[in-house]
Amino acid sequence: MFKSHFFVFICIFLLFSLESQGKIFKSSYVSFEIPENWKCKSFEQNWVCHDKNQEQKLEALITVTAKIAGSFDTRDNYLKHLNNEKTWISRSQEEITSKKLGGDPKYIHPNKFPWVEGTHLSSEIKSYISRYVGTVCCPESSSQLGILVVLSAHETLWTKYVATFIKAINSLRVLNIEEAISKIRASDSMKSGDSMGSYIDDLLTENKEGQIKESSPLHSPFNLALLGIGALALGTFFLIKKRKNKKQKRLRRKRRRKKS
C-alpha cells in the first residue's frame, strides 16, 4: 500500500515538475526563464516575448531593451523615475494617468546582481499592469549598458501570469556586456529594420468583443520607456518606422521623376 502511494506521489511530482519547467531566453546582454510555449522575436538589440498561441489575442508580453548608458542612466535615477506616475494621451485622445502598484519601487538582487523594480497600471497600455526591472552594467566594461525588462499583462489576467513573471525576474542574469556594447554600436537599428512598436501594435489591436485590449497607445517615441533610458523599446522603433517610411516615399518620388 505504501509503495503504491509513493509511486503515485512520484508520478504527480514529476508531472508538475515537467509542467513548471521553462526554457531560457538569451540575448547578447541578458537571459531569463520563460515558459516553453512562449517565443521571442528580435528587433536588433530589442526583443518581444509572448505566448506563441496568442498572436491574435495577446494577454501578456515581455519586452527587453538595452542602450549605451548616458548621464541619466544610473540605478538610483531609474528608482526615482519609477517612483513617479505619468500622464499620457492615448490614440483615442484620452488622457490617462498611470497608477503605482505594490508600494514604492525598490532594489532587488536576482542572482546577486542589483536591479531596480517597480510596478504601474496603465503606464504603457491602458488597463495593463507593467512590472519594470532595470539596471546599469558594468563599471569594469569599456562603456556601461542600460538594460530594461518590462513584464506586462492585462489587469484582469495579472494573477494568471504572476508566476511566469516572478520566474523570469528571479532567473535574470547579465551576460557579456562588452559583446552587447559592440553589437549595439555596430547596429544600424536607428536607420533600418523591423518596427518593434508596430509589431506590438498589431498584437494589441482591439478584438471584436472589445475586451482585453482596451487601447494600444504606442504613440510617443519618448513616453514609452518609463525608466527614461533614451528612445528605447517601442519609441525607438516608431522612429525607425517613420524614417523608413520617409525613405520609401523619397524613393517613390525619384522613380516618378525618372518616369516623367
Describe the structure.
The protein has one domain: Protein Transport Mog1p, Chain A, CATH 3.40.1000. Helix 5 crosses helix 6. The protein has 6 helices and 12 strands. Mean pLDDT is 75; it is low at 1-20, 189-193 and 206-241. A hairpin with a 2-residue loop joins strand 3 and strand 4. The chain has helices at 2-20, 75-82, 158-170, 177-186, 196-203, 233-259; strands at 22-26, 30-35, 38-43, 46-51, 60-68, 87-89, 95-97, 99-108, 115-121, 128-137, 145-154, 173-174. The termini are far apart.
Q: And the CATH topology? A: Protein Transport Mog1p, Chain A
- List the strand order in the largest sheet: 3-4-5-11-10-9-8
| Uncertain regions spanning at least 5 consecutive residues | 1-20, 189-193, 206-241
CATH superfamily: Mog1/PsbP, alpha/beta/alpha sandwich
List the secondary-structure elements in sequence, H or E: HEEEEEHEEEEEEHEHHH
